[in-house]
Write a structure and sequence with these properties.
Elements lengths: L30 E12 L5 H10 L3 E6 L4 E8 L2 H7 L3 E6 L15 H4 L22 H5 L2 H4 L10 E6 L19 E2 L5 H4 L18 H10 L15 E6 L9 H14 L3 E4 L9 E2 L7 H23 L3 E5 L34 E2 L8 E7 L18 E4 L19 E5 L1 H7 L16 E5 L5 E7 L2 H19 L1 E3 L3 E3 L2 H10 L11 E2 L12 E2 L17 H6 L5
Parallel strand pairs: 5-7, 5-8, 6-7, 8-10, 10-12, 12-13
Antiparallel strand pairs: 1-3, 1-4, 2-3, 9-11, 14-16, 15-16, 17-18, 19-20
Length: 558
């Protein structure tokens, strides 16, 4: 019996351009002479057989398929394949991967300190903690994770997926908790944006991270408390590498969907998602500024992400998402001038209608969206916000926090975590001999063991750093209150985890005045942010700032 799909999807970009020769071209086709790769998807209620037949009729060859969401990887040398596929009743449409060289998707917010000439020293040091660098982890202190671990440090049976650029499993603070059996790479390198492939297949080995972002996220969640380096929020949980992002920082739909499906099939307990699905900052159902093909791709992305997120949630995965670094109210978004950020179409202005446009995955089904605060507890200037989207707040770092004090514009206002040596060397902050270069000592740290094995750490900031604090607390909740499930399984229903996370967060009222300006921090009026809501729930903090100690000491309500 053919499977039928309840949702259709068109990926905005495939994972890797496949080279296929000898494809047959249907009669009447107009070959372009170049084999191209597309991601195509079935319409709602269309069987796999019918979808494949429509793809072939349009001039495509299916090279892989994901039946759970009706996604098909397709190659074609027919110039009008995308048009034909979009017109087919059985298909929503097709999106081509256009591997056109464009600078990597670097987040200038996360490394603001590298761009700021006024960057100063490491700032205030805190009391001695379990691991040597823990005195720099103000985020652990803010959410009382340092106290929570005395009661619940995390259970190794609890698995946290890091859906990101990869995870460096060789890092001494990651290695003790890395889960090799469940980790996967779903995003092969695209040479045009990621650089030359390190291996012939372009599929980097599991346990590597050529972007650095995922390793930083993983360390905040679960770096081991081993008397070395630093420790994470949940230092004894298992970390699972779900590589769904390119080395360059792009996150395309097909790898993200496949990673979420794997998380659901494998029974992961938590998945952290510190990204948005490229190339659209907002996916809209029918934005008048978009072409029909772009509208079809975005419609499918919305539906595909809902399907994939629901699939994972229904199989026991608690989903945590970063709210975004665009300093805007997601309930009243500004004009999008950054999309599409990939391909041969340059970004163009798009008015964003809140009722028909979504930032994904953070505004997706079942996702707990996390806003960012600095050491003062104030909403970071870059952090998105809004009563419709903000679920909770967490330490994400804010370089410009502390105006009027000696901590203003210091590296220590950000989040310190694990980082791959290779990436630091590529960024120029560590030399080829593994030494920190002059001028980088305030934001890059090196720790070595007696056997001369060394590990590296750096500061970043962003909602990408806030989300893993929340993921760590969610993992502690599962560790503390989870129950055996199925054949050797262990876990806790995501809805129960979510409610407990909200109920135990430390309520924080809106600041006064409610309209916050960041002119003292050097920001334009565009950064002005109005906090709506009550002390128990508002647009800056949601249900409050997460509290790990309260989460593991407050009785659970199922």
């Amino acid at each position: 019996m053919s499977k039928r799909f309840t949702v259709g999807v068109v990926a905005t970009a495939a994972a890797l351009a496949l080279t296929v020769t000898g494809l047959g071209v249907p009669a009447g086709a107009e070959p372009s002479g170049v084999v191209r790769t597309f991601t195509v998807v079935a319409e709602d209620g269309v069987s796999a057989d019918a979808a494949i037949a429509a793809i072939r009729s349009a001039g495509g060859t299916v090279v892989s398929r994901t039946d759970e969401v009706g996604v098909f990887q397709v190659t074609s040398d027919r110039a009008d394949f995308a048009t034909k596929a979009t017109a087919a009743a059985a298909l929503i449409g097709a999106a081509e991967e256009k591997a056109i060289g464009r600078k990597p998707k670097l987040d200038r917010v996360e490394q603001e300190h590298l761009l700021a000439a006024a960057a100063k020293g490491a700032g205030k040091q805190r009391g001695k903690k379990l691991d040597p660098l823990d005195d720099k982890l103000w985020g652990l202190e803010m959410i009382r994770a340092d106290k929570a671990r005395k009661i619940e440090p995390g259970d190794g049976r609890v698995t946290v997926g890091v859906l990101d650029t990869g995870v460096d499993a060789s890092h001494p603070d990651i290695a003790p908790n890395f889960n090799w059996a469940l980790s996967r790479n779903f995003a092969p390198d695209i040479p045009e944006i990621d650089g030359p492939c390190e291996v012939p297949s372009c599929l980097d080995p599991v346990g590597t991270d050529d972007g650095g972002h995922g390793t930083h996220v993983a360390g905040t969640i679960g770096a081991a408390a081993n008397g070395f380096g630093l420790s994470g929020v949940a230092p004894k949980v298992s970390l699972v590498n779900l590589k769904g992002g390119q080395d360059a920082g792009y996150f395309f739909l097909n790898p993200v969907v496949n990673a979420l499906l794997h998380a659901g099939r494998s029974g992961l307990d938590v998945v952290n998602m510190s990204f948005y699905v490229d190339p659209w900052l907002y996916n809209c159902t029918a934005n008048p500024a978009d072409s029909p093909e772009a509208q079809a791709a975005q419609q499918a992305t919305i539906r595909a992400m809902k399907r994939a997120l629901t699939y994972a949630h229904d199989r026991g995965v608690t989903l945590i998402g970063a709210l975004g670094n665009n300093h805007e109210d997601l309930g009243d978004p500004r004009t999008d001038i950054s999309s599409p950020n990939y391909g041969d179409v340059a970004p163009y202005p798009r008015e964003i209608d809140n009722n028909s446009c979504w930032n994904l995955p953070t505004e997706g089904a079942h996702v707990i969206s996390v806003a960012s605060v600095g050491p003062s507890g104030k909403k970071a200037d870059y952090s998105n916000y809004g009563t419709e989207q903000t679920a909770i707040a967490a330490p994400g770092g804010w370089f410009r926090d502390g105006f009027g004090t000696d901590t203003f514009r210091t590296d220590a206002n950000m989040i310190l975590s694990t980082y791959p040596l290779k990436v630091l060397q590529e960024e120029g902050t560590v030399d080829e001999d593994g030494n920190i270069v002059p001028g980088a000592e305030t934001f890059v740290f090196k720790e070595c063991k007696a056997n001369r094995q060394c590990a590296y750490y750096t500061y970043l900031q962003g909602t990408s750093m806030a989300a893993p604090h929340a993921s760590g607390v969610a993992a502690l909740i599962v560790s503390r209150y989870g129950k055996p499930q199925g054949r050797g399984g262990f876990g806790l229903a995501p809805d129960v985890v979510e409610r407990h996370l909200y109920r135990t967060a430390a309520e924080r009222a809106c600041p006064e005045p409610r309209l916050q300006t960041y002119t003292n921090e050097g920001r334009s009026p565009e950064f002005d942010a109005y906090c709506a809501g009550s002390p128990s729930f508002n647009g800056f903090y949601g249900h409050g700032i997460i509290d790990a100690y309260a989460a593991v000491t407050t009785p659970l309500r199922r």
